[in-house]
Amino acid sequence: MNWNNDCYHKNFSHLYVEEKAWSYPLTKQILARFSASAVIPIQCYRDVFSSHRQMFSCQKQSPKLLLAVKEETAEALVYPGSPVCQSFGNQHFYYTSSVMNCLYDCEYCYLQGMYPSANLVVFVNLEAIFRQVEALLKKGPVYLCISYDTDLLALEGLFGYVRRWIDFTREHPALTVECRTKSAYVPKNLEPDLAKRFILAWTLSPSSVLTAYEHRTPSLSARLQAILQALEAGCRIRLCFDPMLRVPNWQSHYAELVEAVFSALTARMPDCLTNGQLADVSLGTFRISKEYLVRIRRNRPDSPLVQYPFRTESGVCSYGSAVDLEMMEWMKQKLLSWIPEERIFLWKETEKTERT
Ligand code: SF4
Question: Rounded to whole angstroms, how far apart are CA atoms 93 and 223?
Answer without folding.
Answer: 27
